[in-house]
Design brief:
Number of strands: 18
CATH architecture of the largest domain: Distorted Sandwich
Number of domains: 2
Helix content: under 10%
Strand content: 35-45%
CATH superfamily of the largest domain: Glucose Permease (Domain IIA)
Number of helices: 5
Radius of gyration: 23 Å
Structural class: mainly beta
Shape: globular
CATH topology of the largest domain: Glucose Permease (Domain IIA)
Largest sheet: 8 strands, antiparallel
Length: about 350
């Protein structure tokens, strides 16, 4: 069985005894299913669509806007949080439409597959999840929920906005998110077009989202996840777990490092980073040209302290991402951050 199919159809065996059609709203079997946003966050501020349904037939991938925010064979919509800190605070996953819970799974740990490997979750790639039947052949599924957070049971009736659980890191995933999937008569559909996967990004269908949900889920190709300062070389895992976020630095700090974490980068994008001192002098700068598309990319730049303490005052970090569009270079994103180095009256210069 294809991995993509195996990922979801474990829930289809958890059939609710008896027919559900009588419990569903009346209407023609071909009625479209209006969907609300399936997560309790402000999209574009607290959470972001990281990956869309792959519309490319065969090898390669394209999202419904013909952009690179997908991967080969992906048949869901990944709405991610900024980092593990946000996940620990707790962000609710919500029913996008009324229906009856068809199946649930809970109890899987919140661990990235970069640590466990895919074999550890084989056959359970969806992680902790909830599947809902909406009648007339419509189903939705909510995957990668946080361990112990599922709040509904098989056979339970839910309404729009019913809390199903919390965003987590269970199953085959590398970052905290909910993967939202839509099926009609057993076949996956892209909620942004209402069309099956691999239909081609040039085709324009009709979104399943309500007008309000469509406005909230407006397409954003590239965006900032986080940025900040620290006093030592960071790595992506540490940053995404909440480390390296200094609000100020001492004059004796061993280094001043500026970092940024961004999603939705394209091949040939150009990243420029610069770090300046309180007088505007450049302490460090770097240019990075991407060789391939990246779902997310972490970069940092910094300067080690010499023998004397750092000059007190405000240090500035700048990050710009530029993209070649129709033969011209355009700035896609700019991030600016500042950190204050506090004067240490007790520090003695080292010579």
């Amino acid at each position: 069985m294809h991995l993509r199919i195996a990922k979801y159809w474990w829930l289809l065996g958890l059939l609710y005894a008896g027919t559900l059609a009588a419990d569903m709203p009346a209407g023609d079997a071909h009625d479209r299913l209006p969907l609300e946003v399936p997560i309790d966050c402000q999209v574009g501020v607290d959470c972001f669509v990281q990956n869309y349904v792959d519309t490319e037939a065969g090898p390669g991938y394209r999202d419904h806007s013909c952009g690179p925010l997908s991967y080969d064979g992906h048949d869901g919509t990944d709405i991610r949080l900024r980092d593990l800190v946000a996940m620990e605070r707790g962000v609710a996953v919500l029913a996008a439409a009324p229906g009856v819970v068809r199946g649930v799974r809970d109890g899987m740990d919140d661990i990235s597959i970069t640590a466990t490997g895919r074999d550890a979750v084989r056959g359970r790639e969806a992680g902790n999840a909830v599947a809902i039947r909406h009648g007339h052949g419509w189903e939705t599924q909510y995957s990668h929920l946080r361990k112990g957070s599922v709040q509904v049971k098989r056979g339970q009736r839910v309404e729009v906005g019913t809390k199903l659980g919390l965003v987590g890191l269970s199953g085959a995933t590398e970052f905290p998110h909910v993967e939202f999937s839509v099926r009609y008569r057993g076949k996956h559909l892209d909620p942004f077009t209402g069309l099956p996967p691999e239909q081609g990004c040039e085709k324009r269908g009709e979104a399943l989202w309500t007008p309000a949900a469509s406005a909230k889920l407006a397409y954003v190709a590239t965006g900032e996840l986080n940025a900040g300062f620290t006093d030592s070389p960071p790595n992506a895992k540490e940053v995404r777990s909440g480390q390296h976020r200094a609000e100020s630095l001492p004059a004796g700090a061993r280094a001043i490092v500026f970092w940024a974490d961004v999603f939705g980068l394209n091949k040939n994008d150009i990243i420029d980073m610069r770090l300046t001192d309180p007088q505007g002098n450049v302490l460090a700068e770097n240019t990075d040209v991407l060789r391939k598309h990246k779902a997310q990319r972490f970069n940092f730049i910094g300067k080690r302290r010499r023998k004397t303490p750092w000059m007190p005052g405000v240090y500035r970090g700048e990050y710009t991402l530029s993209r070649n569009v129709n033969g011209s270079r355009r700035e896609v994103i700019r991030i600016e951050r500042e950190v204050r180095v506090q004067e240490d009256k007790n520090s003695v210069p080292e010579y």
